[in-house]
Amino acid sequence: MTEARDAAGIDSLALDVDTFGDTITVVQFMELSTSTRSDIDARTNELVSHLRELLAEDMWEGDEETSKLFGKAYRHLMLSKRPTPETSAYDAFTFMRKTATHADALLRVYAAKNGTGPQ
């Protein structure tokens, strides 16, 4: 990492860490009883998009724990595991929350490796 990148901190990161973190926070506060299926689907799509960006970063090798987190998140995003319109709201909500959990874990590693500290 260069000194310029360290000095710029979060503004120099390829990902918008704040927006990504905000999405995770919103999902963590959602409740199944007060969420519509369209809200669940929209937030899931948002999380999946952010998580794909995060997984595309070239920084996940070399650390066994980080590699495990990467593998779990990657497997979680497999198309065969994603909710469909026929999936129950409960199962879609559960998928969304698990996606947020994976995203949060990887975002924390990403932020730490880029010198922005825990989110």
Radius of gyration: 15 Å
Low-confidence stretches are 1-12
Q: Count helical runs.
A: 5
Quick one: biggest sheet?
Answer: none
What characteristic shape results from the CA principal axes?
A: globular
Question: Beta fraction of the residues?
Answer: under 5%
Report the count of strand segments: 0
Structural class: mainly alpha
**Level of helix content?**
55-70%
**Which sequence of SSEs, written as H and E, runs from N to C?**
HHHHH
| Average pLDDT metric | 84
End-to-end C-alpha gap: 20 Å
Describe the protein.
It is a single chain. The protein is an all-alpha fold. The protein is 64% helix and 0% strand. The chain contains five helices and no strands. It has helices at 3-8, 17-29, 37-55, 64-76, 89-113. Helix 2 (17-29) runs antiparallel to helix 3, helix 3 (37-55) runs parallel beside helix 5 and helix 4 runs antiparallel to helix 5. The protein is globular, with a radius of gyration of 15 Å. Residues 1-12 have low confidence and may be disordered.
